[in-house]
Amino acid sequence: MTGPAVTNGHAVEVPFVVAGRRVDGRPPAIRHVENPWATITIPEFSEHMADELTTNAEIAALPTQEIIAFLNRLGCLWRTDEYPRRRRYVRQLQEVRGISEPAARSEADWISLILRGHTRIWDQLDVELGSRFMLDDWIRREETEVRAFPRGLSVHLLAGNVPSAAAVSLVRALVTKNTVVLKAAARDLLTPAALALSMLDCDPLHPVARSVSAVYWDRSDEAGRALVERADAVCVWGTLDAVEWVRRNAGPEAEIVPFGPRRSVAVVGAGICTGTELEHVALALAHDVFLHDQHACFSAQEVFVEAPAEPLLQELGRAFGRYSELLPRSRDTIDDAAVVSLMRRTAEFLGAEVDTAADGGWTIVRGLAPGSQHPHGRCLYVHEVTSLDEVSAHLDAYVQTVGVAPWDLCLAHRDDWASRGVSRITELGLMNLFRPGATHDGYYPLSRLVRLSSTELPSAVHGKGVVAPINQTERLEHGTLVELVMS
Amino acid sequence: MSAFVAEVTARVHQLDEVAPVDRIIFGRANPFAIAKRDEMALTSALVADYVRWHRDHNVGFGRFVGRFEPADGDDLVASVPVFPIDLFKQLDLASVPNAEVVRRFRSSGTSGTVSVVPRDDVTLARFAGSMRVGLRLLEPWLSTDELDINVEVVSLTASPQEAGDIWFSYAMALGRAFASSEFLVQGGVFLAEAAADAIARHLANGALVGVVGPPALLMDLLTWMGANGRRVRGRDRIVVLTGGGWKRRIGEAVEPDELRREAARVLGLDSLEQVRDCFSQVELNSVFVECAQHRKHVPPWVHALARSPATLAPVAPGTMGLLAYIDTSARSYPCCIISDDFGAIDPEPCPCGATGTTLRITRRVARSTGSEGCALKIQHALQGPEEVDG
Amino acid sequence: METERLDATTADGRRVAVWRSHGAYAAGPVILLAPGFCRTMRHMGAVALTLVQNGAVVYRFDPIDHIGLSEGDVRNFTLTGVAASFDAVVDLAVAREPVDQVVILAVSLPARPAIRVASRTAKVTRLVLLAAVVDVRHTLEAALGKDYASWARTDLPAEVAFERHLIDPRPLWDDAYANQWADLDGTIRDLCSVECPVVAVHATDDEWSRLDDVQHSLDRSAAVGPRDLYQLPFAEHDLGGNLSAMPLVLRQLTLSALESPTLETGADVVLPELEQVIELRSEERLRMAGEAGGVLTRSGS
């Protein structure tokens, strides 16, 4: 991970942001993170830095609307290439991560959409907390008034597989008024820093900007571990191993918000038979396979096709070709290339039909399950089934999203699939879109990022079903406590 | 007139032929002294027979080979399809009846994710033979003639009884087929003091001492000996052979040259040449031992090639690729494998004078595990444990 | 396999170390095993184990003036000493076992004195020779790189090295000339006096002992008694080191040595597994070191 700067490839310096303050690396307190295309120089995380990462009371006191307004301003900045930081981010994603220009622009667009979507954020608060006012006021709920308070210091251990996921984690924590520490993944040091720096571009004195940090440390770093230990909430995006690490190291009262290992699948029914429908479904499936180079938890890795699969397969080749142009694949590392090649060869040994793009950019494997390790790299495993009832046997709690076409399949199968553990069912082509109200890995994340307090009505109020003032001493004396509630 | 008397002669019977690969492994001639041209012809002939045999005895492999008909003009050996070692985690790849399988050996690791490789007596015998052949590269520090006579091996591994079916430990323990060995890992605990005692005792008895084991335990031994005033003067009477890599202790790995220097310092060796590393893996049936130049030599019964990570087509010597092997010593399973290791075939002959392909193994392929969706488990085998962020 | 240590005594009173091995219900023939030059009886473990597993009682021994546990130093090695050792062990076996005759199985150089022993005693019922040396002069030249037999006695060096063992060639030279060990004709003469069956198992590519010489000597003596030659194509002299050919060789040696109605084919022979053989090697290394007075303690080997 660390090492000397390389002479070939790009040399990129990425600063940290510590509690709203930019921190550039100064030798010798720097480290180099290398990948095949670049050497990224970042500051060395230190105990001193960690000490600065504490709960910021300013954001807790801020009205939600001001936070959302700030995020909206930020999202507007990110909307076009007129914003230099967006231009730099798009360029650096290509240089440092090998992401194609269209895909890099798509990431920046998604960041803008996520930050800018004020109405959707309000809706999300409304759905996940029960009221969009919950963080600003006491909300009447039956015989109580309830208010949500931030957890405090939230640490976000990012996976880096989907860059814009950093924006999702950030927005969730900010709109629940938490102080945010974005801990970057080694594979994506750019996005957390770009997000935090753009806040400083927007207004460096704004309480939101002062509540956000973007840093990096590796697992062996004790200061990082100690920070996780004193965090009030830890959002962990990663492997089972990463989630387990957080469970071992987080404090006993900390709320752990895990986005652990998940996979997603597509289901296509036999009802689709016209050429136009087939083309539409194939393109939708291609989108859900190609976006983020299949690295996202919502990326379709397998498709179950109600027999006959042949017409869809024929259309799929064309759709994959079209998407190869719309979202050109990221440059492969030799590791990525090797993993896909080995997968293809394994499939061939096991007798599967393997169809590959001439440039190796995508692969369709028919007649084989992916086994324990899906190679990503736009590889789709196709299973032809005689009845869609067979699909549920392949679903479990590790399946996050099932994308279906035609849509009426959802109604027919959702009880079965959801009871197997599936978190979301969407229309094919929309697997990446989390609509307001959508669950993420089986729960509402915003509800995990707040602490609820309630104030309850006084004895003067009888309460539903109670026909007399609540005087418990009197009732105890008369032995009539059981009559407190009318039969 | 003389009566015709039939001359009485001995009755002559033919036993089965010794297989061509055994003639090389167990022959007197040094396999690392075969001229390059002869070696290529030899390897080609062995590979052709080998693939044919397994195609006829292993249905799955036969079907696989059938998918790859070489085109006219293709190098027949290079065009032999190789399959990923991952398949040993999924399939029983035996080419011999179950009754002939002595053991199914496992790679180190957790259950369910390990390779399982079936071996019969012939395959095991050839593996042991390959170890002996590899030791020829240690001359003049070690003469194979001396092996079962005056060599005492201090093995920093578990005994074969403790090793069970774990290939690395079992393979290291196979050295006792031709040299007196004692095993200093007992109940999972490395007995550094006992190892130091054994080295000192054997030196005092005039034996040639072989210290054999994984580099991490060698380092433990050297550290213990240094810290406890137990350095010895091995001079030319100790050879050190490491194998198996640093595995879970990769974070403590030191550069090979540093390990050699430390071994030479603590064990009082005359030369850094007395410390060698070797390479094998559970799916491979031969050992590649380092020569005095610290290059790992591939014996002539193994065809090694680097292949393009993108297409698996052969790449030129000197170019990094996925290392693939056809090891014709493996009878009980088809050893036509493509490994998880990046490396390169050295383009130039080895200056040590021994012939045979030499190769460099750089690192493991870093995998992002598909089943973990968001989670990307990237384990750079040479860079340390997985990061928390994946 | 149970193994016990015995001692035999040569006619001139020298001690020959013997390992007697047997199975649980051994009732088969008694077989003497002599190791090759600069090998010891522990190197014959695989053969002994196979024979025992197929019902034989096996006497292994180290010749005198040789490496191993018997009296004398290999520096003074002679073939007459090996022959004397054979005689002593034959007598010991016949005295201890309920048999009048034994089978001799000799490997490499000791095959030559074994032939002479069989030529002069009726106590040998069968002679099995593995990689037999029949032309001693040729073999020594091939092994040592020089034809010392052609040298004048006075020109011989005081010592020559073979596999790091130092041997004085002068007593060997003297013995060879005095007792007609050196040439092929002497072997043929001895074989023509061997009436019992002689079976040779020999590799076609044996450069130290040519297959043609072995076949010629068997042919020339075939009128005297049964002679069988089993050729092992493409193998070499050191068959003991060829772990892969080992099953084939062990099976044939067992069939040849036991010559039993219950062992009609190779399929009837029980062979040890490789792991058993390797374990036995380890055990017998320790046994030998212990008997030699070495201070060896082993942990887990």
Pick out the low-confidence regions of chain A: 1-7
Q: Can you tell me the residue ranges of chain B where pLDDT is under 50 for at least 5 consecutive residues?
A: 369-390
What count of helical segments of chain B does DSSP give? 10
Helical content band of chain A:
25-40%
In order across it, which strands form the biggest sheet of chain A? Answer: 15-16-17-14-13-18-19
Distance between the termini of chain B: 101 Å
Beta-strand proportion of chain B: 15-25%
Please give the most extensive interface between any two protein chains, plus how many residues each contributes.
Answer: A-B, 62 and 47 residues
Largest sheet properties of chain A: 7 strands, mixed
Structural class of chain B: alpha/beta
Overall pLDDT metric of chain B = 87
Sheet of most strands of chain B? 13 strands, mixed
What general outline of chain B do the C-alpha atoms trace? globular
Overall form of chain A: globular
Element order, helices and strands of chain B?
EHHHEEEHHEHHEEHEHEHEEEEEEE
Radius of gyration of chain A: 25 Å
Count of helical stretches of chain A: 16
The whole-angstrom Rg of chain B is: 23 Å
Number of strands of chain B: 16
Oligomerization state: heterotrimer
Layout of SSEs?
The complex is a heterotrimer of chains A (487), B (390) and C (301).
Chain A: E1 10-13, E2 16-18, E3 21-23, E4 30-34, E5 38-43, H1 47-52, H2 57-61, H3 64-77, H4 84-97, H5 101-116, H6 118-129, E6 139-141, E7 144-150, E8 153-157, H7 165-175, E9 179-183, H8 190-202, E10 212-215, H9 222-230, E11 233-237, H10 240-249, E12 255-259, E13 263-268, H11 275-290, E14 300-306, H12 310-326, H13 334-349, E15 353-356, E16 363-366, E17 379-385, E18 399-405, H14 408-420, E19 424-427, H15 445-448, E20 450-456, H16 472-478
Parallel strand pairs in A: 1-5, 8-9, 8-11, 9-10, 11-12, 13-14, 13-18, 14-17, 16-17, 18-19
Antiparallel strand pairs in A: 2-3, 4-5, 6-7, 7-20, 15-16
Helix pairs in contact in A: 3-5, 4-5, 4-8, 11-12
Chain B: E1 11-14, H1 20-26, H2 36-57, H3 59-66, E2 83-84, E3 101-106, E4 116-120, H4 121-135, H5 147-150, E5 151-158, H6 160-163, H7 167-173, E6 180-186, E7 189-190, H8 192-204, E8 208-213, H9 215-227, E9 238-243, H10 256-267, E10 275-279, E11 288-290, E12 296-297, E13 302-307, E14 321-327, E15 336-345, E16 358-364
Parallel strand pairs in B: 2-15, 5-6, 5-8, 8-9, 9-10
Antiparallel strand pairs in B: 3-4, 6-7, 10-11, 11-12, 12-16, 13-14, 14-15, 15-16
Helix pairs in contact in B: 2-3, 8-9, 9-10
Chain C: E1 2-9, E2 15-22, E3 30-34, H1 45-53, E4 57-61, H2 79-96, E5 102-107, H3 111-120, E6 124-130, H4 136-144, E7 160-162, E8 165-167, H5 169-178, H6 184-191, E9 198-203, H7 211-220, E10 227-232, H8 246-258, H9 274-291
Parallel strand pairs in C: 3-4, 3-5, 5-6, 6-9, 9-10
Antiparallel strand pairs in C: 1-2, 2-4, 7-8
